[in-house]
Amino acid sequence: MCTSLSYRDAAGNIYFGRTLELTMDLPYQIVWFPAGFATTSQVEGDAPLSFTARHGVLAVTMPARVPSADTPIGITDLKILEGLNEAGLTFSLLSYPAAGGGQRAIDATRAVLGASDLGAWVLGQFDTVAEVKAALAGQPVMVQPLAILGGVESPFHYVVHDRSGAALVIEFDKGTMSVHDNPVGVMTNGPAFPWHLTNLDNYTYLTNVDVPTSSFGGYKAVQPDSGIATAGLPGSNTSVGRFVRAAFYAQFTEKAASPDAAVLALAHVMNNFDRARGVTIDYPEAGVGHLEVEGLKGEAGASYATEFTTWTSMSDLDRGLFFIRDYASLNYTRFSLSELKDATTPRVLPLKAFNGGAGDGTSVLKAPAA
Shortest CA distance to 81 belongs to which of 169, 156, 150? Predict the structure, then answer.
């Protein structure tokens, strides 16, 4: 459903990329949340937590509830799935169905952060992974039923990256939160993050060096072209297979000599995780589960479900640049956080407003109509 990874250029600067796969296209909104934006996180039955953003944040968002004629969607309903702040900190939400259930009780006097507001809290408040980790040690966070997912409890885990290359996985398993340092800088979906690290122990033979010849008795075998080094990579689109492939590409992709070349290199890496509709399909009778959003279905008339890459994003953490393309686009739209900084009120535009258009989206998002 999702693949995320970090990439480092020759100068040591960090870049981050992720894909999001679902069986349907959703009403994603690109949002600029300026510094000073106030958020109140409310989990039913617990004291609310209010906070004000120190940093401006550019984010891909989704509404947390289904709108009605009497209660249209407002800015406070938009929850961050992916984002970058002015300090070069990234936040990403990835599917993890084992998250919900069995949470411990919280002292009624303590303010609780709903998991749906983790993105706003992390990106609005902090500069580094170390700061986020320290803050989480003292801040209760709870998964919560999401109306737009039919009441399922926040079926996600979350990754955070900063300019130093540090990375964090925030994971809920049956309601219990764990915070893991991520030395690989890669994440996909289930199983739990420590399992993925253990599984990497099965791939110590991987290298990017081709071995094009070998001898078998009196026969000398010769490869007709290059590329045999990748023969040991798992080929499936499962979470487990994608994790190993992402770790391989993040490790061995040539370190670009300039920031622009690094963004281009990362775009090529992310192409390896771009999934076309129909590449894998699931029939209802097979019992395979997918995230379902109330009121929305996959392709009309289809007898099967097919996960596809609804969008891919990249972040240049040092320069404060964010890039995104959706399924209808082959080119990325670029946003500059430094140029958005003087927009002191929120800006919102549908992701579809940038369909097919390469180039800069900053001025479009800053326009009064946004």
Answer: 156
pTM: 0.94
Q: pLDDT tens-digit profile of 137-148?
A: 999 999 887 777
Q: Position of tokens 């420590």?
A: 194
For 111-124, the pLDDT digits (tens) are: 999 999 999 999 99
- Spatial contact of 273 and 239, defined as CB atoms under 8 Å apart: no
Query: CB within 8 A of 22, min separation 6: which ones?
Result: 1, 290, 291, 307, 308, 310
> Rounded to an integer, what distance in angstroms lies between the CA atom of residue 107 and that of residue 67?
32
- Cβ-contact 171, 160 below 8 angstroms: no
* CATH fold of 2-366: Penicillin V Acylase; Chain A (3.60.60)
Whole-angstrom CA distances from 351 to 50, 78, 115, 142, 196 are: 28, 13, 23, 29, 32
The two three-digit tokens of residue 306, written as one number: 């097919």
Alpha-carbon distance 295 to 199, whole Å? Answer: 38
Quick one: how many helices (H) and strands (E) in the chain? 7, 23
